[in-house]
Amino acid sequence: MAATVRQVRPAAGAAALLALAVCLLPAVARAQLRVGFYDTTCPNAEALVRQAVAAAFARDAGVAAGLIRLHFHDCFVRGCDASVLLTVNPGGGQTERDAAPNNPSLRGFDVIDAAKAAVERSCPRTVSCADIVAFAARDSIGLTGSVSYQVPAGRRDGRVSNASETVDLPPPSSTAKNLTDLFAAKNLSVEDMVVLSGAHTVGRSFCNSFVSRVWNQTATPPAAIVDAGLSPSYAALLRALCPSNTTQTTPITTAMDPGTPNVLDNNYYKLLPRGMGLFFSDNQLRVDPQMAAVVGSFAANEMLWKEKFAAAMVKMGRIQVQTGTCGEVRLNCSVVNPTSSSSSIEQLASSTPAVDEDAIAAS
């Protein structure tokens, strides 16, 4: 009997390593996403998510911007695997959700939970939280900008969430080079970055994300300033709103697009040349020649931007996805499922370098 056990273990280990290798191949995972993924297993999945989003939007139009941002923050850290939703990390430590870039500014978790509950009642253990986040973002874009597009689905949920990995998120203090590099690391181009930045046309921001543009907090006492590229009159308005002692926990917010804060349009691009980009990173799109050219084209043609925005959202939704037997379909979006054999594979994957698919193709 003991001999039999010794013979099985290597095979089991080889199978686990094979599964890990497959999960680490980005091209394989992306290829498994498809439109209509739930047509036979849960045909009303997208309708149920749409209903949950519409109900939340009716109560608070601002939640749409939150859901769009939630998808972005999920995909940029560990890929689009709903890791941003986890409240507990099985491996210990702080989760993405509690990290400074997400707490307290990220919202929409309750909408995802409501959508998941509705889907679970209809199709138990079938629809992933990662796909629900992607559907909810698409529906929010439809409600705020009358933009519709199809979402390839089939993502699986991750079992790891580390606050330290939120360094992959571009901070509002990013330079043009920072932005270019962070997006390139996710296989997104400069144009993709400028396109997706247009999401700043909806939603609100906490003062802490831009206070350094209107107050020199290192001076004693803090001194009023106007950051380069910021309209003096706009700076005065922001300074009147945000106190000089603003911190991460200061609860005051302002609309990122003061003209049409709940409408997904191209007004963001029109505001940039007027010195009304709220963040330092927004102004970088205006001063960098390559980015400024793209900004100008979108300011002049809203339909062009909306078409490219939908395409960029689909492209972003393919970042480092888990599909097939990788990951899991969570029963509760905020916690991983009870420990299973698949969890050990992902825990190993979390500490294993990503496979270079181009190198494999060339070998």
UniProtKB/TrEMBL annotation:
Cofactor: heme b; Ca(2+)
Keywords: Calcium, Disulfide bond, Glycoprotein, Heme, Hydrogen peroxide, Iron, Metal-binding, Oxidoreductase, Peroxidase, Pyrrolidone carboxylic acid, Secreted, Signal
Cofactor comment text: Binds 1 heme b (iron(II)-protoporphyrin IX) group per subunit. Binds 2 calcium ions per subunit.
Magnesium found in the keyword field: no
Domain of life of the source: Eukaryota
Catalyzed reactions: 2 a phenolic donor + H2O2 = 2 a phenolic radical donor + 2 H2O
Keyword NADP: no
One annotated GO biological process: response to oxidative stress
Disulfide links within the chain: C42-C123, C75-C80, C129-C333, C207-C242
Site (Transition state stabilizer): R69
Sequence positions that bind heme b: H200
Record PROSITE patterns: PEROXIDASE_1, PEROXIDASE_2, PEROXIDASE_4
Pfam families assigned to the protein according to its UniProt record, in alphabetical order: peroxidase
Principal subcellular localisation of the protein: secreted
Enzyme Commission numbers on file: 1.11.1.7
Binding-site residues for substrate, renumbered to this chain: P170
Residues spanning the signal sequence: 1-31
Ranges for domain Plant heme peroxidase family profile: 32-337
Family of this protein: Belongs to the peroxidase family. Classical plant (class III) peroxidase subfamily.
Task of the protein: Removal of H(2)O(2), oxidation of toxic reductants, biosynthesis and degradation of lignin, suberization, auxin catabolism, response to environmental stresses such as wounding, pathogen attack and oxidative stress.
Protein name: Peroxidase
